[in-house]
Amino acid sequence: QSVLKQPPSVSGAPGQRVTISCTGSRSNIGADYHVHWYQQLPGAAPKLLIFGNTNRPSGVPDRFSGSKSGTSASLAITGLQAEDEADYHCQSYDASLSAWVFGGGTKLTVL
Amino acid sequence: EVHLVESGGGLVQPGRSLRLSCAASGLIFDDYAFHWVRQAPGKGLEWVSGINWNSGSLDYADSVKGRFIISRDNAKNSLFLQMNSLRVEDTALYYCAKVASAHIVPAHYMDAWGKGTTVIVSS
After folding, report:
1. CA dist., res. A59 & res. A95, Å (int)
2. A37 pairs with which residues across the strands?
3. Which phi-psi region, left, alpha or beta, contains residue B89 (left: φ > 0; alpha: ψ -120 to 50)?
4. Alpha-carbon gap: A15 to the closest alpha carbon of chain B (Å)
C-alpha cells in the first residue's frame, strides 16, 4: 500500500479539465515537504512534470499545474489532449519513515 | 541531454544475488545524487535507495535495508545496486533516477530517469 493516496483512475474528454489528488498525512505532505509529479506514458519511464509543488520544468506545457494545501496536493490538466493519456505519480518525503514516498499512480484516460 | 541506461536485470531464484548497473552520460556525474526506484508489475513506484555525490550519504527503504547495497563509481560515471537475499516481492522494473542536486535531501526531486531493467525473482 502506498503512503500517498491517489485515485486509481480519472478520465475526461478532449479539451476538458481534470484534477488528480494526492492525499498524505502530517508526516509527509502535511509536514511541509514538497510534492512532485511524474508523468509515465505507456511503456515509458517516468518523466518529471511538476517539482516543488507548483513548478514546471522547461518544456512542460502550462496546461499542467500543481497545487498543495494541508496534507494534500493536486495536479490539474486543462485543455486535455489525447497525448496526455498516461499514468501520473505524486512523490514526497515522509519523516516518520525517513523515506521518499510515492502515490499508487493514477491512470488518466482521454475519452 | 542526460542519458541513463540500466543493465544487469534478469531471472534469479529466491535467496540469490544480482547486481544492477546504471551508466550515465550527458552530465557531470559527480555533481549529482542518484536514487534507485522500482515498479512491480501493475503497481506504483517505490523508492529503493539513494546515494549522494561522494557516497558519503546512503539511504535505504526498510523493505531492502540489510539486503541491498547502493554504490557508485564516479570515475566510470556509473551507479550500482547490489541486491542480496532476493525475495519474490523484489520482482520489479528497476529505474535509475538522477536527483537535481548533489545531495539526497528530502525536498529534492528526480529530474531524469532511465528506461529500467527488469528483475524477476522466482523459483
Report:
1. 32
2. A50, A90
3. alpha
4. 27
Interchain proximity A36–B106, CB inside 8 Å:
no
Residue ranges of chain B with per-residue pLDDT less than 70: none
Bridge-based pairing state of the strands B78-83 and B92-99:
unpaired
Is residue B95 less than 8 Å (CB to CB) from chain A?
yes
Residue A1 pLDDT > 90? no
- The CA distance from B89 to B117, in Å, is 16
B42 to chain A, any CB pair closer than 8 A? The answer is: no
pLDDT (tens digit per residue) in B44-65: 999 999 999 999 999 999 999 9
Q: Do A97 and B62 touch (CB under 8 A)?
A: yes
Residue A13 above 90 pLDDT? yes
CA A93 – CA B46 distance, rounded (Å):
12
Q: Could you identify the residue written with the cell 496534507?
A: A71
DSSP secondary structure of B22-47: EEEESS-GGG--EEEEEE-TTS-EEE
